[in-house]
Amino acid sequence: MTTLPEGAAYKCYSVVNPIHSTIYFSPDYGEELAKLGLEDSTAAYFVGRAAAMGRVGPGIVTATFFSFSHELIARHIPAAWDVISPEVALEARWRAADSVLRRVLGEEATASKEMAEAAELALRATEGCSRLARPLYAAHADLPIPDAPHLALWHAATLLREHRGDAHLMTLVSAGLDAVEALASHTATGKGMSTKWILRTRGFSPEEWEAGRQRLCDRGLLTDGNELTEAGERLRQSLEDETDRLDAAPYEHLGAEGVARLTELATTFTMTARQNGAFPADLLGKS
């Protein structure tokens, strides 16, 4: 392992992760599952991300996803597995990832030597990941690597995303934040998912959202105007710093030169995806 320039690992992650995330904001996966009888888009999200763990119950999904209402999850899991098996759901997810990336990146980019290079670098980074205490990462790490370079990159981005995500949940629990508090404090930074999107997708009511904000106020982390206090800013920064520490291994394994090159390549792909409408304009923000 090598020492990286400050911030290089997170910068790399921040441009690789959107390559994976394109699937969540496109209709492709929902359409694939609808053909198989599962028509609810919320159920499609839970099935798609949980399928690598097998036919798990709602408790496992709540524990590993963290930022969703258990009641919302329990409305769809395990009932969805009676409609579509995890194995079939994973096959549909690959088809959806293929169609999404071809659309938002273009056929030329998906077939380029730069795509193959990015896939090779990202997969090399995943060699430094650890399964220990990282259930979502570990489940996805057991899946086979696709042959097509754009799907291999998407798979590697998935592994890097879940590796960091599992680590981040460790920090949230250590800080004593529940799901709503974690979401609300992140939204208050202006860098997290907007309140509108959280209430639309996470299964929490406006009353639960406001109660979570009030708990943050009571802890001195949030103002009545929904701005982070100095203590709140310190907490959010400490969460990111600790997550960076827990997620450093794959990027250290790749090395400074590899991280810089993967960042360069992934930045181009992510910018292209954004320009082609891969993500909603109002996804991030405080409102």
Radius of gyration: 19 Å
Main sheet properties: none
Q: How much helix, percentage-wise, in residues? A: 55-70%
Count of discrete structural domains: 1
**Mean pLDDT across residues:** 96
What count of helical segments does DSSP give? Answer: 16
Beta-strand portion reads under 5%
Topology pattern, helix = H, strand = E = HHHHHHHHHHHHHHHH
Q: Say how many strands there are.
A: 0
Structural class, please? mainly alpha
General form: globular
Alpha carbon gap, first and last residue = 41 Å
The low-confidence runs, each spanning 5 or more residues with pLDDT under 50, are none
Protein name: SalK
InterPro entries: HTH_67
Structure description:
This protein has helices at residues 8-21, 28-35, 41-50, 58-65, 70-74, 86-105, 107-110, 113-126, 135-141, 149-174, 179-188, 195-201, 206-218, 230-246, 249-254, 256-275. It is mainly α and 287 residues long. The chain has one domain (8-275). The longest helix is centred in the middle third of the chain and has 26 residues, at 149-174. It is globular. The N and C termini lie far apart (41 Å). The model has no long low-confidence stretch (mean pLDDT 96). This is SalK. InterPro entries: HTH_67. It comes from Streptomyces demainii.
